[in-house]
Structure formats: C-alpha cells, structure tokens
C-alpha cells in the first residue's frame, strides 16, 4: 500500500449499531466506528481486541462512510483504540459531517490535532490505568510517560464541546483527578464525569453506588456504563 493510500485508509476493529453506553448521550442509538491501535495499554482496558493496528481490517474512508450510512442513524461515535493516532481521521470526520452525522470522538487526550467533532469525549488516564502486571506489564513505563497531556486536553476544551470522563476505583484516584482538574484552564466542572472501573456486570454493580456517592459529594456527574450493565463484556455492544 502506498503512503498516500495509507493516509486515507484506517484499520477498523469493528463497526456496529447499538446504544451509547457512556457520557452525555447515554442511551442514544448510535453507529460505532472502532479504530484499531492505541498508544496506551490501560490495565483495565475493556477492548483488548482493538489495541494493535493489526487487529483491524484496512478500510478506506469511503468504505467506512458507506458502511455507517447503511444504518438509519444520525449519531456516530468514533472510538478505539485511540482514533487520534490515525492520519486519516481528519478526512473521515469531515466526510461524516458532510453526510450530516452528529459525531462524537472518544479519545484518551494524549495528543491533539484539529478535528471536526460535535463532542470530544476525553478520558484522561489516572495512575490506576498503568499495567503493573498482566500481558502488558512491559509497557508500564511507556504508558506512564504518555498517559497524561494537559496541553492536549486544554486544546480540545478550548476548541470543542467536550466531556471529561475519569475512571475511578479508589479514594486516591479522586485526589489525582482533582489535581489534574486544577491544572486545566477554564474548566467547566459540569462537563466532568466519574465512571466506575468495571468490566463485568457484577463488578459494575458493586462499584457504581460508591462512585455515585463520590459524585454527590463533589458535585460531579455520574457516568454510567450502560453497555456493561446490559451486555457485560460482549463485543459489538
């Protein structure tokens, strides 16, 4: 494949039609475009099948847009993996907007470049994400160096409608989160959400009440994980 062809092709882990499970549009019928490849290796990642580019299937921007258009649905969620690693992302988002779609981009916020998006859903990674053991333990140092980029997060906040989703599991996560929020200029705390760290229904049900109480105490929004509550770890949901 030539360099120009690669620029306008992306490796796609899956495209599916479901309900948005997280954030401001929870419950909204949406088409999901999950791109393969990620620059991080979160300990609790719930989409390990999208971590490596080779896990996806190469598709042109035209093919992706055509597939999205086969569903009678205005809302599109471009997720990953990490979508911002793809040079062809900007063209994909432009074409989706040209087709009249409302586009949410889900990103870990570790890198910034101009994009077209109706909502940028940023999930800054806390220390609880570092893969201390398991299959990606050797990635820990690289993950720690890359997991937080305040300047990139601020750039998205300045230029887009945004939400910040923090995966929390313990009290120390809240201390770290507040420290990060304190570094962000012109933060609107109404856009900050706490999300339980859970990959199964049982874990979600145990964690959700605790996280909900933390939200009440801090005046922050609770971010559900509807897909976990409804379908557990089932792929394509």
Structural key phrases:
237 residues, alpha/beta, TIM Barrel, 9-stranded mixed sheet, 9 strands, globular
Please provide a written account of the structure.
The chain is α/β, with parallel strands linked by helices and 237 residues long. The protein has one domain: Aldolase class I (TIM Barrel, Alpha-Beta Barrel), CATH 3.20.20.70. Helix content is 33%, strand content 22%. The chain has eight helices and nine strands. The protein has a nine-stranded mixed β-sheet with strand order 3-1-2-4-5-6-7-8-9. It is globular, with a radius of gyration of 17 Å. The model has no long low-confidence stretch (mean pLDDT 94).
CATH homologous superfamily caption: Aldolase class I
Radius of gyration: 17 Å
Number of domains: 1
Count of DSSP H/I helices: 8
Overall SS class:
alpha/beta
Low-confidence stretches: none
On the 0 to 100 scale, the average pLDDT is 94
Strand content: 15-25%
Terminus-to-terminus distance: 32 Å
CATH topology: the name is TIM Barrel
Helix content: 25-40%
CATH architecture descriptor text: Alpha-Beta Barrel
Order of strands, main sheet, comes to 3-1-2-4-5-6-7-8-9
> Strand count, sense and closure of the main sheet?
9 strands, mixed
Helix/strand layout:
Layout: H1 3-7, E1 9-19, E2 29-35, E3 57-60, H2 61-69, E4 75-79, H3 89-98, E5 102-107, E6 119-122, H4 140-146, H5 150-159, E7 162-168, H6 171-183, E8 192-196, H7 201-218, E9 221-222, H8 226-231
Parallel strand pairs: 2-4, 4-5, 5-6, 6-7, 7-8, 8-9
Antiparallel strand pairs: 1-2, 1-3
Helix pairs in contact: 2-3
